[in-house]
Write a structure and sequence with these properties.
alpha+beta, ten-stranded antiparallel β-sheet, 17 helices, globular
Length: 540
């Protein structure tokens, strides 16, 4: 039997604290007594959903008799108390939704799995990179393997869920966990206290530090703490101000695209359908449809299948937000609705690695970038003044017109491939760093790509330009309005992305360097959003 198990926080003492009142008051969740004594403290709830018609019927009805087709489902919640801790077992789509997520232990399933899975028997690993351009992926291997065989860049990607086999549990042979835990159970319901006692022991163990030490890079913060309250207040101000730097949206769960027809974003009975959820589309919804004080909590987003039913959990806007904040000298990230303090040792190791990347700011001494100047105009001005090759928007095509890459923006005679961007957001810098590593990969893997670079250089300078003995250097030229070195002023998200891409470049045998382009102090931060358009008055 496959079960989904959640662990309530230690301060939850009564079953009723875990159930959201709205499910009992309005959504039909009913208490259900067992037919005989279980022999342990437990409380059950059942919800029989009302039948609904799939949304795709409207498309078919004109030509087919489909009026009697209905969808229905049933959900169940079983709460059990063991060793003074409360566990919740959920069945059906609404089972989890009936629980108050703020009263559940975050990372319970991941910790149990990491402490229990045999290191050589990992099957699936879900990861989520720490960047404003969020990438989520599930890597599945056909046979049990070690974490090293999944080819996951652990310095950049955050392991959120693992699945594998175990011999450390009496009635469980395989398990998978993130916040909740999924187990394949070979024991009857009456043995549940024994099973849950073992899971609690596995949750409190520290075996994971041997095979999965990176799980300590990000320490979850307790909901309701003073730090979380301060971070939430800062984030709310960001959203109200429609800030775009160091913040983005990412789907809180991995869902098969084929199961999603569209998304519904709603607040206070106003609902809008979205083909995709982005920061700009969420801000547009808030501008046009929301007038409350806490859009992070009031706004909900849910993926909808073509049947018209939810194909995933309805989550608050806060659950979709990915952001990075600095507070009291520490770095915090928000992901999947929870705040995490970034481990100081991890921050130190990332910063130390960034400082080892050569900084060529003084050697290049770039001209100041006028904030009113577009990137293309700035590159053109610098290229003409320094007599460099301008490759900005001069794309190299790989196999067809839709597959193209910009080699770099500026090419110096010393074969510095200079990629230029403003430090306006983590997303912008993520694109910049990726541009450099992809260019390096093509340089080493495509002879025609390499020939194109030296052909352009030789034609421009009217002499044969040959490959330097140590190879060319990818230079990330970043314009910002802050004093100090780039190693000290880059966003932490961006440092992780830079480190990941710089190592790709270095492994390919090319050099990599940084260079700061100066901008007037505070100029990037003075940029304003376009004012909200007020709706035209309706005729009376």
């Amino acid at each position: 039997m496959k079960l989904t198990v959640h662990l309530a926080r230690e301060d939850v003492a009564d079953f009723s604290e875990l159930i959201r009142p709205v499910y009992i008051e309005s959504l039909g969740l009913e208490e259900l007594d067992p037919t005989d004594s279980l022999g342990f403290p437990a409380q059950a709830y059942i919800q029989q959903d009302k039948p609904t018609q799939p949304k795709w019927l409207a498309f078919l009805k004109p030509h087919f008799d489909v009026s009697d087709i209905w969808n229905t489902s049933t959900s169940f919640v079983l709460l059990v108390k063991v060793s003074e801790r409360i566990f919740a077992l959920t069945f059906g789509m609404s089972g989890y939704s009936a629980l108050d997520p703020a009263r559940l232990e975050k990372g319970f399933g991941l910790r149990v799995s990491a402490n229990s899975v045999d290191e050589d028997d990992l099957i699936t690993v879900d990861t989520r990179n720490l960047d404003a351009v969020t990438r989520q992926q599930r890597t599945h291997l056909s046979t049990g393997s070690r974490i090293s065989e999944f080819s996951i860049p652990l310095e950049q990607d955050w392991v959120r869920r693992i699945q594998g086999k175990t011999d450390k549990l009496s009635y469980v042979s395989s398990l998978a966990g993130a916040d909740s835990l999924q187990i394949n159970l070979s024991a009857p319901l009456k043995r549940l206290p024994d099973v849950l006692t073992e899971l609690l022991e596995r949750y409190e163990a520290t075996d994971y530090k041997r095979g999965f030490p990176f799980l300590d890079y990000f320490q979850p913060l307790s909901a309701g703490s003073e730090v979380v309250s301060a971070l939430d207040e800062m984030l709310l101000e960001w959203v109200k101000g429609r800030r775009e730097g160091k913040i983005s949206l990412a789907m809180p769960q991995i869902i098969d695209d084929e199961q999603v027809n569209h998304f519904e974003i709603s607040a206070r009975r106003k609902v809008v359908e979205l083909d995709e959820v982005t920061l700009s589309s969420a801000y547009r919804f808030l501008d046009e449809c929301y007038e409350g004080e806490d859009p992070l909590v009031d706004t909900k987003i849910v993926p909808i299948a073509d049947s018209g039913q939810a194909s995933g959990k309805k989550r608050t806007l806060r659950d979709w937000v990915v952001c990075e904040l600095e507070h009291s000298g520490k770095t915090y990230v928000l992901s999947l609705g929870d705040w995490y303090e970034v481990n100081r040792d991890y921050v130190t190791s990332v910063n130390d690695a960034i400082r080892k990347i050569p900084d060529m700011t003084d050697e290049f001494n770039f001209e100041e970038w006028d904030p009113k100047e577009k990137e293309g105009d700035y590159n053109d001005r610098v290229a003409k003044k320094r007599k460099w090759v301008l490759l900005d928007k001069d794309n190299y095509y790989i196999g067809g017109p839709s597959q193209k890459i910009e080699i770099c923006d500026l090419l110096s005679k010393d074969m510095h491939l200079i990629c230029v961007k403003q430090q306006s957001s983590s997303a912008t810098l993520s694109h910049l760093f990726s541009q450099g590593s992809v260019s390096a990969e093509l340089y080493r893997g495509e002879q025609d790509y390499k020939d194109r670079i030296y052909r352009d250089a030789s034609e421009y300078w009217q002499e044969v330009i040959e490959e330097p003995a140590d190879g060319p250097v990818i230079v990330y030229a970043i314009a910002n309005d802050r004093t100090g070195s780039l190693a000290d002023t880059l966003f932490f998200f961006s440092k992780i992305s830079l480190l990941f891409n710089a190592r790709i470049v270095q492994r390919l045998g090319l050099g990599v360097a940084l260079a700061r382009i100066p901008m007037p102090e505070g100029s990037l931060r003075r940029k304003k959003r376009k004012p909200r358009k007020k709706p035209a008055p309706q005729p009376s």
